[in-house]
Design brief:
This protein is an all-alpha fold. Helices cover about 70% and strands about 0% of the residues. The protein is built from three helices and no strands. α1 packs antiparallel against α3. The protein is rod-shaped, with a radius of gyration of 26 Å. The two termini are about 40 Å apart.
């Protein structure tokens, strides 16, 4: 149970680093003398904007999150594998010691 809590805490802490940078991207060009409302105007433009690809910031954030998540899963899987190998080795050692007696 404690491992799950640690895992969830790590995932949430990683999200705190990724999400603010993505949310701050629309306000990157705002200076002190310009009102924020000007950049957050929700009226429709005269010509619709056609995007050919997703925003690069979101793409990089998603790629980074996926890599960190895969790395975390790999570490957990490696830990289970090493634990199983150590348990097998301990059984073999105990059986050899019992045979020697």
């Amino acid at each position: 149970m404690q491992r799950i809590q640690i895992l969830l805490a790590l995932i949430l802490s990683l999200n705190l680093f990724i999400v603010p940078s993505v949310l701050a991207a629309p306000l990157a060009g705002v200076t002190n003398d310009q009102p924020v409302i000007q950049f957050l105007n929700t009226t429709t433009p005269e010509e619709p904007v056609v995007r050919n690809a997703p925003p690069i910031g979101l793409t990089l954030a998603m790629l980074g999150f996926c890599c960190i998540f895969l790395l975390l899963l790999g570490v957990i899987a490696l830990g289970f594998f090493i634990r199983i190998q150590n348990q097998k080795e301990d059984k073999n050692t105990r059986s050899r010691q019992a045979d020697d007696l």
